Amino acid sequence: MRIIIYTGKGGVGKTSIAAATACNIAESGKKVLIMSTDQAHSLGDSFDMSISKEPTSVMENLYAMEIDSVYESEKSWGSIKSYFKELLTMKGGSGIEVEELLVFPGLEELFSMFKILEEYESGDYDTIIVDCAPTGETLSLLKYPERLSGLIEKVLPIKRSGVKKFGPMVEKLAKVPVPEDNVFDDIEYLMDKMQRLQELLLNKEVVSLRVVTTPEKIVISEAKRNFTCLYLYHYNVDAVIVNHIYPDKAMVGYFSKWVKLQEEGLSEIRECFSEVPKFYVELQQREIRKLDVLSDIGRIIYGDSDPDEVLFKKEIYIPDKDNSCLKIYLPFADKDELKLEQAGRELVVGVRNENRRFPVPEEFSGKEISGAKFEKGYLKISFDN
User: Mean pLDDT across the stretch 63-80?
Assistant: First the structure.
C-alpha cells in the first residue's frame, strides 16, 4: 500500500496535481482514495462534483473525501474533552465560549491525520493520495504527532500516579474534580494512535511527499525551505512537480519579458533539486478540472513513469562508515541558521525557527559532541572517543 502526500505554497495547483495523479493510478487498475486535509477544500471543485466527509465514488477504482476536522475531532476527544469542559464550566455557564476554548491550535489538524491512519489500517485501498494545506500548515501537521506524543509519553505516567496518590486531597481542598481513569485511558489511546501515525509517516517504503512548485523565484524559495524542513523531520520527498510553465508560443508580446525569468527559475530548480525526479506541467489551454482533463494531465505529468512507485529515496540520518561522525542531510540549509545542542540522549537540531530532537544512535551512546561542520548539504556531528 502507498500513501503519497502533496504539499506546496498556496496557489501552485496542489489539488489539481493530486487529483490528476489519483486518476492516473486508478486507471492502472489500482483502488485509490484521494483525501483533502485542507480546511478550504477544493477537491470537489476539481472533480466538479459534491464530495463528503466519507469516501465518495468518483470513477471506477477512484474514491474521494474531504476530511471534516471538526467531525474527526468530536470522534477522537471522548472523555478528555468532557473532563476539560467540566473544569471550564465549574464557575460559569456552558456557552459557546467554552466550546471555543476547547479547540486547541493544531489539534483538529492532528485528528485529520488520524483519518489517514484509519483508512491505511483498514486496508481497503491500494493507494491513498493526500492533498494537504499550504506549506506552513502542512509542516505543523507533520511535526505535531512527534512533539505531542513525546510530551505525553514523559508526563502521563507521572500524572496518573500523582492523581491516584494526591487526587482525593486536591479534590477536597481545591474543589477541582479529579480525572477518572477513563480520561487517562483516552490519552493513552491517543498516544498509541500518534505513535502508529508517526511510524507510518516515517516509513519510506509506504509514504512519499511530493513538493509542487512553479518557476517563480518566491515560490521556489518556499519550496526549498519546505524541502529542508521535511528532511529535518526525516520525511522522504521523492519528486518535485513544476506547474504553470508558460509554453514558448505563449511567451510573446506582453509576456515576452517572462522568457528570461522563467528560464532562470527552471534552471534554479534543475540545479537545486538535481537528485530528485522532476516533472514539468505547462500551463494548459483549459481549466484543470473534471475527470477527462484530470486524466489527460495525469498522463502528461508522469509520461512513462509510474506515479505509484517510490520515485526517489535518500538516507537522511546516518552514522559515517567508521562511526567517526553522525551525518544529517539538510538540503538548502544556511550554515548561519543552524544550531545544535545535546540534551542527554538526544540531539536538538534547529534550522531557522524549526527545531527537531534526534535520539543519539547506539554507536555514539554515552559520548559528548566534540565538533560539528556543515558541508555539501550534510550537518556532520563529531563525538569524543
Answer: 76
